[in-house]
Amino acid sequence: MQNAPHNSQPVRARIGALPFARAVSMLGSVIALAVACAMLAPVAHGQEAPPPRQDRAQQQQQQQREMQRELQREVQRQEMLRQEQRAYEEQQRRLMQAQQEQQQEGQRRHGRMTPDERSELRRQINEANQDIYSRPRRR
User: Fold this and answer.
1) Which helix (H) or strand (E) holds 8?
2) Are 60 and 68 in contact (CB under 8 A)?
3) Contact 5, 14 (CB under 8 A)
4) Rounded CA gap, 14 and 16, in Å?
5) Contact of 48 with 42, CB cutoff 8 Å
6) pLDDT 10s digit of each residue in the chain, 139 long?
7) Contact 49, 43 (CB under 8 A)
8) What distance in Å separates the CA atoms of residue 39 and residue 33, rounded to the nearest whole number?
9) Helices (H) and strands (E) in the chain, counts
10) Which of 37, 57, 59, 130 would suit a FRET pair with 108, their CA atoms being 20 to 30 Å apart?
11) 8 Å CB contact between 39 and 49
12) How far is Cα 1 from Cα 70, in angstroms, rounded to an integer?
């Protein structure tokens, strides 16, 4: 780079190959191409191009309706989730209750009798003894 002469010419003069008018023309072509691509982009992606002069009020109303529909869908989804959660909790409560009843039944069969159960059993035995050994009535 030390051997290169120091050039103090302006940039436009150094370009030389492209005159200024030609560069401006190419820039205009690039801008026109970019605008055309932007307009065709929705069509290329399978979307319809929006109507060129749609009223702003109509656009806002349509957006508002879409937002309301989306809000309603979200509320419905939330309600469905709540109902599913309640049903699941109810099912779990029933299962727990059934398990507790089975455990209590198992404890009653294999464990010691409670004082109430013992007194009830004595009463039943005494009633049965009275029926078995009762004296026949004379006529």
Assistant:
1) none
2) no
3) no
4) 5
5) yes
6) 455 555 555 555 555 555 666 766 777 777 877 777 777 766 555 666 555 556 888 888 999 999 999 999 999 999 999 999 999 999 999 999 999 988 887 766 666 788 998 999 999 999 888 877 777 666 6
7) yes
8) 10
9) 4, 0
10) 130
11) yes
12) 65
CA–CA gap between residue 125 and residue 131 (Å, rounded): 10
Map tokens 């059993």 to a residue: 121
Q: Are 40 and 47 within 8 A, CB to CB?
A: no
Amino acid at 19: P
Structure tokens at 25: 């023309």
Residue with tokens 């030389």: 16
DSSP code of 46?
Answer: T
Residue 83 CA to residue 55 CA, distance in Å, equals 42
77 close to 71: Cβ distance less than 8 angstroms: no
Radius of gyration of the chain (CA): 47
Amino acid at 26: M
